[in-house]
Design goal:
The complex is a heterodimer of chains A (617) and B (630). Chain A is an alpha/beta fold. Chain A has two domains: 303 residues, Zn peptidases (Aminopeptidase), CATH 3.40.630.10; 189 residues, no CATH class. Chain A has 23 helices and eleven strands. In chain A, strand 7, helix 7 and strand 8 form a beta-alpha-beta unit. The termini of chain B are far apart. Chain B contains 15 helices and 27 strands. Chain B has three domains: 379 residues, no CATH class; 121 residues, Sandwich (Immunoglobulin-like), CATH 2.60.40; 47 residues. Helix content of chain B is 23%, strand content 28%. In chain B, 39% of the residues are buried. With 630 residues, chain B is α+β, with helices and mostly antiparallel strands. In chain B, the strands form six sheets. Chain B has an eleven-stranded mixed sheet. Chain B has a five-stranded antiparallel sheet with strand order 21-22-19-25-26, with no helix packed on it. Classes of the chains: A alpha/beta (617), B alpha+beta (630).
Chain lengths: 617, 630
């Protein structure tokens, strides 16, 4: 042991050790990325299983059907008549139907404003009180009048009404059932859930006139098609990449896939062959959605309040009819009704790669953590380096003989030279605080001003590093190499810290930002080689936050031929920030962008150039 | 009621009035008057009251008296001996016990039966006046009482410990006549178990206390399947001393069961309880819809009244009357407008009451009794409503819920709505909270809906007894008013404590039940009547219970830790132990084994034979030297 310590201590003095960190960082990044690509393999992913024994999914007979279909057709006629009518008119009709069923009905108005637009509407909800229960617990069935794409939920709304009538006949419910009809898929549910938990801004969102107990789960139905369908698509992404308990997804999977014999799809993978390629694609799509942190359906708003929720979307051409999806919901509700405790047994952090395969946080987290760690390693290395006198310089300038050089080199690593902290700290702090400017700008401008503002900001953010760099040069005391080391060290330290803590909250976002900013570890001032400098500049500008946002908006989406466009991306980001509280913009503008600015500034830097000239002269 | 009226007049008045549960409260709240009625020692009555939305309220009431002298002489006749001995042993002067399930839907069903005097919050609730010289003695007696009753009623009443016991100051007043009601040796203790699930095992001992058990009379209708399938039910036992002004004091026990049955659900046969979709041709459709077709049906109101009979709803008819009951009190009454036809079984005598909304039936003791109520022949919905007696508007609506989210702190909000257009409601709001909900009393505030800012004048008096961790719960009593035709929000914040690992119940993630708040509305008439009682309880109601989520640890984690540390300790200890106790010797110095040993022995023997007197203990010495070197 003492020998080991001694050798480790002697290694510490070894100047070769300081050459190691860049390679170590590179290794971290490579291992982190390769790790991710290993996950879909059978050895690293696991089969899903039901953890909560009380759920017993697919164990009950479902009786929805028969003459209920006649009722469904009647409600469908009613819904069709309402197509294109105003929110209030729709709610009046829904209220009269729900009251006819003997349910308690409440309404709630909400008004959100985002990017100069006003999103307002009125939610209506009906409470089926548990026949023998008291109002301690409740489960929610949501049907948005329009889905996230703006299509009319033509079959979903009448099906939920029919189910409400059917559920009313059962006496076994142990929890209240709330049927929620919202005018849209994001703002409406958000307003309702906020108000249910009294976390709403009462100037914009009205309080709920009726309440029930603690919400235990929610199922949203997005059923726009009018023809028969093949299987059901589970949408499970919540706001900010939060996910519902895996048990809920597994339950739906058991009921729909096992009991009802209809397939289940996730992440818009309509055909899944369970090959490595398909698994990887499913996982990456899931990560992309998680990383963006946008609401993906009416269920998304429930998840931040620890209410597990999914949206069901029937899809494909097949022979399943609306009664089949009704029975899936019935079966799932019977399972949720069985719950004695809040869903807590199974995983909350997972990546699904097929409907029955997942990796849990313990397996995938090292990937993002390694990517984040590479910045920290480099930051520490730069800090150590900044404490040592510039060995290279001394050797090149003063060495006459090799012995003399060795004599100079050997004692130096012990004696840390004094660090000039002021300038680096100020620069990094200013860059960090500048991040608030785009964050404020893009969330408060009106929609028409968003694109010009973005273009202007892109140009400014491209020029800003040059300005800063010039400022550093023209200042009275020229910036030294040590200061550049410190600048990079602080910036990378912050980046590594932010990303590693973010990885535990939103793995995908941390991973993507980490990969995009990986070059920041390796770029350095290159006063001698202008080609290297220009190469670094090109890489950095290609991977700049603004370029990435721009390119991402041009890329075609999953089911569209063309990208949704820059304006739409910015509008959605502002909407997500204002309504659902998505924090992705904070990460982009206050974590990634400042680090990028500092990175470009350090590439442009010409450390100690002035000093050298003075000495030579 | 006014006690100065002649008792003969009262008797006739009571015989007219007591058919309504609402007027029956008058009897309950002023027992002194009703004593003339209770001379007959035992009576029972079932009041049926159809409610809107095809539900039926059934109120069973059983009352018996025993004179105090007979009670003290252990001469039990109608009074159950088992209960009597417990009461005597625990020095109980007055006892109230409630078992409840479900919630009363005041919006559709109106005011509560007995004006809320015979109901409790979800779970089990009990309060009693005990005779004790000191608080400690009262606590001891209370412990005896709860434990004894726990055995008698098969309920977890023994879990009413000091953390769940409070001593209400304003909310409860004795119902009986106590000679020294304000004496210092009368202690009121109140305990509540919100998580207790009331079920059949509580009904059986309840029925056993009755003189006819469940064998005859209206009690024969009671069975667990129907009672616990009801939308709301409450079983109450009230024991109190009653002293008429002109006679001997008696001890009165009143047992009542109130239940609201869903007629649709109750009529479903027991062997086929699954609500399968009915065949399409049996469905009642709205044929006026343009799209109406053989495969499309807009269902008509499910709230439409249905026909029902006692045996359909309860599964059996009433098996005669209890022979011990007072014959002057009709055993069954039904509250429907006189315009509605009610068929009763043969031999029954129908007596219509002058108020035109109720009628009673007398029937022979040995016959089964049955009521059939045909569906009203109205076509459109507006007429149907009139076939059900119009529900009385309650004095106050109350709804309580949690605000906020997260596991650190939260808030409670109670919405109190006064429906009366011109009368203010004054009441006492009582909460008994578990100790792990630490309330911030300074945040308590009341505001009138629609009027911004606090309206602290609404809260008139606050009695607060803070919780002591693991020893005592919070007790909060607030006397406040709600102005006419307005809604008041009463809110306060609280902090959630972190429990110890072993304090969590097995289903920790379910959350913790918080008992219902008790709201006692004070009588407006402050001066009239016989002093104290008149100020009291015009109406009382309870909110629903709440489920409070506390920060809950991951209980599998300790097991992981145990497994992990056990492995580490096993490895470390194993290695350490090995090093400590094992003697290390060089391989060639140690004792040999196996074949080599045998061979060596043989060699040694041979050598010994060859060279006698040579030493043989060399290996042991070598081992000793090795140990010193270590």
């Amino acid at each position: 042991m003492p020998r080991l310590l001694a050798s480790a201590l002697s290694l510490r003095r070894d100047p070769r050790l300081l050459k190691l960190p860049p390679y170590l960082s590179l290794l971290c990044i490579v291992v982190g990325v390769v790790w991710l690509f290993l996950l879909p393999l059978d050895d690293y992913s696991r089969r899903t299983y039901i953890s909560e024994n009380a759920l017993l999914p697919g164990q009950v007979h479902t009786y929805f059907g028969g003459s209920d279909q006649n009722v469904f057709r009647a409600y469908k006629h009613e819904t069709d008549e309402l197509a294109g009518k105003g929110n209030i008119e729709v709610n009046d009709k829904l209220e009269s139907i729900a009251k006819g069923l003997g349910l308690k009905v409440g309404r709630q108005n909400f008004t959100y404003s985002s990017a100069g637009n006003t999103h307002s509407g009125q939610n209506i909800y009906a409470i089926l009180q548990a026949p023998r229960g008291d109002a301690t617990e409740a489960i929610v069935l949501v049907a948005a009048w329009k889905n996230v794409k703006g299509e009319l939920n033509r079959s979903g709304v009448p099906l939920v009404l029919t189910l409400a009538r059917y559920f009313k006949r059962w006496s076994l419910w142990s929890k209240d059932i709330i049927f929620l009809f919202t005018p849209d898929s994001i703002a409406g549910p958000q307003a309702w859930v906020d108000a249910y938990h009294d976390a709403h801004d009462s100037s914009r969102v009205a309080s709920l006139p009726l309440k029930s107990g603690a919400l235990q789960g929610a199922i949203a139905l997005d059923y726009t098609r009018e023809t028969r369908f093949q299987s059901v698509h589970i949408v499970y992404d919540g706001v900010n990449g939060q996910l519902p308990n895996l048990d809920l997804i597994n339950s739906v999977n058991h009921v729909a896939g096992g009991q009802m014999g209809m397939g289940v799809a996730i992440q818009e993978m309509w055909k899944h062959s369970n090959s490595y390629h398909d698994r990887l694609q499913t996982m990456l799509r899931g990560m992309l959605k998680q990383g963006l942190g946008l609401a993906s359906g009416p269920h998304s708003s429930f998840i931040p309040y620890h209410v597990d929720a999914v949206t069901l979307q029937p899809f494909g051409e097949g022979w399943q009819d609306e009664m089949a999806i009704g029975r899936v919901i019935e079966g799932t509700f019977r399972s949720l009704n069985n719950l004695l405790e809040h869903l807590h047994q199974s995983f909350f952090f997972y990546l699904l790669m097929q409907r029955e395969r997942f990796v849990s946080i313990g397996t995938y987290l090292p990937s993002a953590m390694l990517v984040a760690a590479n910045f920290t390693i480099m930051a520490i290395a730069l800090w150590v380096k900044s404490g040592q006198p510039d060995v290279q310089e001394i050797i090149t300038e003063k060495t006459k003989t090799a012995e003399e050089a060795e004599r100079i080199v050997s004692p130096n690593p012990h004696v840390a030279s004094e660090r000039d902290l002021f300038l680096p700290l100020v620069l990094v702090a200013v860059c960090q605080f500048l991040g608030v400017v785009p964050l404020y700008l893009f969330n408060h401008l009106s929609e028409s001003a968003l694109i010009p503002a973005f273009v202007l900001f892109s140009v400014l953010s491209s020029i800003l590093p040059f300005l800063l760099s010039n400022l550093l040069h023209t200042s009275t005391t020229s910036t030294t190499a040590q200061q550049y080391h410190l600048i990079r060290s602080f910036s990378l330290l912050l980046l590594g810290m932010f990303l590693s803590s973010l990885a535990t909250l939103n793995f995908s976002l941390a991973f993507f930002v980490g990969v995009f900013s990986a070059p920041l570890t390796f770029v350095r001032p290159c006063p001698n080689s202008s080609t290297l400098r220009w190469l670094s500049m090109v890489v950095l500008y290609v991977l700049s936050p603004t370029t990435v946002v721009l390119v991402a908006s041009m890329l075609p989406g999953l089911d569209e031929k063309v990208g949704c466009g820059l304006g739409e991306v910015l509008r959605q980001a502002a909407f997500a920030w204002d309504v659902t509280g998505t924090y992705t913009p904070v990460v982009v503008w206050c974590v990634w962008w400042p680090a990028w600015i500092v990175g470009v500034v350090s590439v442009l830097g010409r450390p100690g150039a002035g000093d050298k000239k003075v000495k030579k002269a | 009621m006014c006690p100065s009226l002649p008792s003969s007049f009262l008797l006739s008045l009571l015989s007219l009035l007591c058919f309504s549960p609402y007027t029956a409260l008058a009897i309950a709240s002023s027992p002194a008057d009703s004593i003339s009625n209770s001379r007959s020692d035992y009576h029972e009555q079932l009041i049926l009251r159809p409610l809107p939305l095809s539900t039926l309220l059934a109120s069973f009431n059983f009352r018996s008296n025993t004179s105090l002298s007979a009670f003290e002489a252990h001469n039990f006749r109608f009074f159950p001996r088992s209960l009597g001995q417990i009461l005597e042993h625990a020095g109980t002067r007055e006892l109230h016990l409630r078992f409840s399930l479900g919630r009363w839907d005041a919006e559709s069903w109106g005011a509560r039966p007995w004006n809320g005097a015979r109901e409790g919050g979800t779970g089990v609730e009990m309060w009693a006046w005990l005779e004790a010289d000191t608080d400690e003695e009262a606590d001891r007696k209370w412990l005896t009482l709860t434990n004894a009753l726990s055995g008698l009623f098969c309920a977890s009443l023994n879990f009413i410990d000091s953390t769940r016991t409070t001593r209400p100051v304003m909310s409860f007043q004795p119902e009986g006549n106590h000679i020294d009601a304000n004496a210092t040796n009368m202690h009121l203790l109140y305990g509540v178990l919100p998580h207790e699930v009331v079920c059949t095992e509580n009904l059986t001992p309840f029925l056993k206390l009755l003189p006819c058990k469940g064998k005859a009379g209206i009690a024969s209708l009671l069975d667990g399947h129907k009672l616990f399938d009801s939308s709301w039910q409450t079983m109450a036992i009230d024991i109190r001393p009653v002293c008429p002004e002109d006679g001997e004091c008696v001890l009165q026990i009143e047992q009542s069961i109130d239940m609201v049955l869903d007629i649709d659900r109750s009529k479903r046969p027991r062997d086929n309880p699954i609500p399968r979709p009915p065949p399409a041709h049996e469905m009642k459709c709205n044929t006026s819809k343009p799209y109406h077709a053989h495969d499309t049906c807009f269902p008509t109101d499910s709230a439409a009244n249905q026909d029902w009979s006692l045996s359909q709803i309860f599964g059996k008819p009433i098996k005669g009357t209890c022979p011990l009951t007072d014959p002057t009190v009709s055993p069954v009454c039904i509250q429907v407008p006189d315009s509605r036809i009610v068929f009763a079984s043969e031999g029954a005598v129908e007596k219509k009451n002058p108020d035109q909304t109720s009628r009673c039936f007398d029937f022979p003791a040995e016959n089964d009794f049955e009521i059939f109520l045909p569906a009203p022949e109205a076509q459109d919905g507006s007429v149907v409503i009139e076939h059900v007696a119009k529900p009385e508007t309650p004095l106050l609506y109350a709804e309580r819920s949690f605000t906020g989210h997260g596991q650190e702190r939260g808030g409670v909000q109670t919405i109190l709505r006064n429906p009366s257009p011109d009368q203010e409601v004054e009441f006492i709001y009582m909460e008994s909270l578990p100790w792990f909900m630490r309330i911030y009393l300074h945040t308590i505030s009341a505001r009138v809906d629609g009027q911004p800012g606090k309206a602290d004048s609404l809260i008139q008096e606050v009695y607060y007894r803070p919780a002591v961790d693991r020893a005592r719960g919070t007790q909060l009593e607030v006397r406040m008013t709600v102005p006419p035709a307005s809604t008041v929000f009463l809110t306060y914040d609280f902090e959630k404590s972190i429990l110890r690992y072993t304090e969590y119940p097995p289903d920790a993630n379910r959350g913790f039940d918080v008992a219902a708040a008790v709201i006692t509305i004070l009588n407006k008439d402050k001066s009239g009547g016989n002093g104290r009682n008149s100020r009291f309880a015009a109406y009382s109601l309870r909110t629903t219970t709440l489920l409070c989520n506390l920060p809950t640890p991951d209980f599998s984690m300790p097991y992981n830790v145990i497994i992990f540390t056990s492995t580490a300790i096993a490895l470390a200890f194993g290695g350490m132990f090995n090093i400590l106790v094992r003697r290390f010797v060089a391989a060639n110095e140690g004792p040999e084994s196996g074949l080599k040993k045998g061979v060596n022995k043989l060699k040694a023997k041979l050598a010994g034979i060859l060279k006698k007197g040579r030493k043989e203990s060399a290996p042991a010495v070598a081992a000793e030297e090795e140990k010193k070197a270590w």
